Amino acid sequence: MIPEQPSPKSEPPTVWNSLTYTGWGRARSATGQIARPERQSVLASAVAQRPAPAFGLRRSYGDVALNDGGNSYDMTRLDRVLEFGTDSGLVTVEAGMPIGDLARLTAPKGWLPAVMPGTGFATVGGCIANDVHGKNHHTQGSFGQHVTEITLLQGETSCTITPDSGAIWLATLGGLGQTGVIAKATLQLMPCPGEMMRLTERRIENLDAFLRAFDDSQTPYTVGWIDGTATGDQLGRGILEESELVAGVDSSGEGTVSVPMNAPGWALSSPIVRLFNAAYLRKVPTGGRTSVKPIHKVLFPLDALHDWNRLYGKRGFNQFQCVLPTDRVDVLRAMLEKIAASHLCSPLAVLKKMGPGRGGYLSFPMEGYTLAIDVPNRDGSQELIAELTQMTQDADGRIYFAKDGVADAAQIMGMYPDLDLWAETVNAADPTRAFETDLVRRLNLRGKGA
Q1: Where is 402: in which H helix or E strand?
Q2: Per residue in 115-145, pLDDT tens?
Q3: Which of 101, 247, 282, 385 is the most buried (most CB within 10 A)?
Q4: With contact defined as beta carbons under 8 Å apart, do 35 and 410 qualify?
Q5: What does the alpha-carbon distance between residue 34 and residue 70 come to, in Å, rounded to a whole number?
Q6: How far apart are CA 167 and CA 159, in angstroms?
Q7: Phi, psi at 340, each rounded to 5°
């Protein structure tokens, strides 16, 4: 860890505005004073005077990026590429850079972020703070494993950390922003042949067939869409997507549309979801299909529909995501049965097989199966998620903090074996708890007292 001092140069006063804001699920909100700096020097000066947590485009679903009643830094204007080695694939970017924008800049030059989540609107700072994973986790591990350097602002001082920095590095990757404001980072990109991907889609008849398909798959990017309403012999049916990077130039254009308003409550009622899921399954022919598409249309399919979270209405939604050990398929099956019986699942349900790769103490990934479902925020939804969370804990699995807005502190006990190491490190780095957020307080991740 290399200590640094903020620039002594005088900066204009930071403007703070009161704002009510939410995570992507919109089921939890916060009100506080928000600053939106435009330069690294302004950010460093502001954090030195008023240390507070930071957020990006708030694509995490619950309250991990919220600080109700406190101050926060909006990093979205700090979105520049600072240095890019086209021979080495090393790129240094500000933390507010959206990962999809970075991919669009680097792919034409033969490089791509090695790991990207399901949305291109996640910022680099958010990807580090949540140590995100993608459809290629089984081959490339987690995002943090491809980061080589991070600049942290910790109040009156800043520091540059690397994988050789020990505990502070491990506490920062997946550490929910608790070691300080991530100002910028250097990433090791991976070579790519072009801007396109070959995508193969095929129908999968049930959960057992899905698990066999994951075991047999040889492609670097793999994900399954699950029909969360299916029961009986069709439990766990869905569509397997396998993809790989190929040469080619993206000339498709963006072609995005927006959801203009909150959808009415009946739009995601159980009968509508069942009909939609049946139709969505049939979009793939019985024999499957293969196509070549731009990278962003394969890895970020929902980004083409801006503000799609409005489809859940003004009450918003919660997402539940867990990972279960590979030998607890019985629990995965029981979860799908409970979800189908609840009549609460939306069309968005995803299943993936993960490898062991993880970057930090609180990184979500572990070897096993990860299930993610969106649940409209209506009667019974939080009870369903609480039950699924308890099933996860009982099965020695873990939930993904970037998605959670429902769990309580008792339910996450034992999920993260390095939690005590993480808490000890972040409490030493931030003894006044200036960077604490709503989720960290709700789940008591840092323990009682300073």
Answers
A1: none
A2: 999 999 999 999 999 999 999 999 999 999 9
A3: 385
A4: no
A5: 9
A6: 14
A7: -65, -40
Q: What is the spatial distance between Cα 199 and Cα 221, in angstroms, rounded to a whole number?
A: 9
Strands (E), 36-163: 54-55, 71-74, 81-84, 90-94, 111-112, 147-153, 158-161
- The HSE-up count of residue 132 (CA atoms within 13 Å, CB side) is 23
Nearest to 329 by CA among 375, 397, 387: 397
Whole-structure pTM value: 0.95
The residue to which tokens 């330069």 are assigned: 39
Give CA–CA dist 219/236, Å, rounded: 21
Which tens digit of pLDDT belongs to each residue from 230-288?
999 999 999 999 999 999 998 887 667 888 888 887 788 889 999 999 999 999 999 99
Q: What are the Cα distances from residue 357, in Å, to 115, 185, 286, 364?
A: 11, 20, 34, 10
Name the token pair of 294: 């731009």
Which tokens sit at 57? 């485009």
Q: Coil, helix or strand for 57? A: coil
Helices (H), 174-263: 207-216
Domains, the chain, ranges and CATH?
A: 196-412 (3.40.462.10)
CA distance 382 to 360: 29
- Written as one string, the DSSP assignment of 296-365 is HHHH-GGGGEETGGGGG-TT-EEEEEEEE-TT-HHHHHHHHHHHHHHT---S-EEEEEE-S---STT---
Helix 207-216 crosses helix 329-342 at what angle (to 10 degrees)? 130
Which three-class secondary structure state does DSSP give residue 130?
Answer: coil
